Transcriptional regulator (Ancylobacter novellus), 78 residues
Amino acid sequence: MAFQPITAVQRLALARLRACDGALSSLTGVSQTTVDTLLAMGLAEGSGINLSGHVVYRLTARGRGACNRFSQLGLLPI
């Protein structure tokens, strides 16, 4: 897979997942396209459905590594 730059919105989604598994579709400013991109890049994966009917996502090992690197570079929000 070719290198794809991580956008600010994708970093926001990763930061939210880093804090806890969550339903990204319910976050303001995170589109389904952003979620699909994170899934395609192997940074996140679906982990079930919550009581509201939203798919819950969690970071993969690759996603945790990306979060750690972005954090070191000061590029991870929150």
